[in-house]
Amino acid sequence: MTPEISLSAGALSKSYVVQNIRTQALSDVSLTLHPGELSLISGPSGCGKSTLLSLMSGLSRPDQGWVHALGVDLGRLDDAKRDAFRLAHCGFVFQGFNLFPALNALEQVQIVLDYQGVPHSQAQRGAARALEMVGLGHRRHLRPAELSGGEKQRVAIARAIVKRPRLLFADEPTSALDSTNGAAVTDLLREIAHRSSAIVVCVSHDPRLIARADRVLEMEDGRLRHDRRGRSGLSFKEISP
Ligand SMILES: Nc1ncnc2c1ncn2[C@@H]1O[C@H](COP(=O)(O)OP(=O)(O)OP(=O)(O)O)[C@@H](O)[C@H]1O
């Protein structure tokens, strides 16, 4: 049976201690994200967006609270099992693209399936399909130095979706892009959510992206403040402190 596509967190808190000074990055955050939607986590610098993404994706552990992903309580997994969970079910897109300079676009994407032990020709077909999905089929033989910033980010997205993850996390995926490319990348992430019924979560402090998301979660001082429908603009929920 296919597991239900679900991602929920309850009462998440996280602080960091540096040189005996404690910073409360996240305080008592609860939320449920829905499949088939692009959810945007927005808010000013330092409000806890990346920390929330990191906890929701199992990259780090909360001080308090829980995360349930695809029916799995991530807090009950040891580090090796959380790594295996992420490898199997999560895709990641970061601001800096993180592409290998020597590999062409097809190879950048294919390497993910090679690493999973998928047979070569199947991996090549899968990588080509993912590049088609992001509109880069015709650019598959180019290396990063020969691609624009927007194209590089689309290769990074193809790499993140090639194994068809149920959960896709993007941290500031548009901050290195101009507004046209930023909008195109955001639209692509939304399209991926709609087409694949994945849960797509994007962290950004770029206010221009708010109108392009299905749902906008606004953070301030480590807390969720507003939860509203972005594109329809129909519902709006104020979260009391
Ligand atoms: N590894 C860390 N060590 C110490 N403090 C940290 C660490 N990571 C985050 N913080 C602090 O926690 C707070 C929240 O940081 P976080 O990166 O989650 O915010 P953010 O909203 O994503 O910020 P930005 O938009 O600038 O990326 C900030 O005060 C930050 O300085």
Automatic annotation (TrEMBL):
Family matches, as PROSITE patterns: ABC_TRANSPORTER_1 (PS00211), ABC_TRANSPORTER_2 (PS50893)
Superkingdom per UniProt: Bacteria
InterPro entries: AAA+_ATPase, ABC_transporter-like_ATP-bd, ABC_transporter-like_CS, ABC_transpr_LolD-like, MacB-like_ATP-bd, P-loop_NTPase
GO cellular component labels: plasma membrane
SMART domains per the UniProt record, alphabetical: AAA (SM00382)
Keywords annotated in UniProt: ATP-binding, Nucleotide-binding, Transport
Name the UniProt record assigns to this protein: Putative ABC transport system ATP-binding protein
Family (UniProt): Belongs to the ABC transporter superfamily.
GO MF annotation list: ATP binding; ATP hydrolysis activity; transmembrane transporter activity
Keyword Cytoplasm recorded: no
UniProt keyword ATP-binding, yes or no: yes
Biological source species: Chelatococcus asaccharovorans
